[in-house]
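go over my protein:
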Amino acid sequence: MNRRNLLKASALAPLAFAPALHAASPADITPDTVYELRIYHLNPGKLPLILERFRTRETKIFTRLGMTPIAYWSPIDGELSTDTLVYIVRHKSREAARAAWAAFGKDPEWVALKAESEKGGAFVNKHDITFLKLTDFSPTL
């Protein structure tokens, strides 16, 4: 499935019609602000495990390192309906995203969490990353 079909299948459109839990104030959004769409294609059976890790600890690490989680999805239709996690995080800029992910990869809490949670095997088989900018008519997320 290509990214265009995934975006349709992921039902990103509802974000435009409901207030986001992590809605930014206008001061938080600048011309440099970017949104990062991440699609994790998981090894079989790992979806419940990664959801629990995100639910309990990983998202908090993102926030601590300056990434703003916007939303998380697990597709319910089509070939991606099993073993796939889709999420969007907001960054102040592409450079801020690069720095945050570099810090994340070396963060002692993350390194320990990954080692502990993936003792039975890696969760992610492959991931797709796309950076997005809001259009001028988009609601502020």
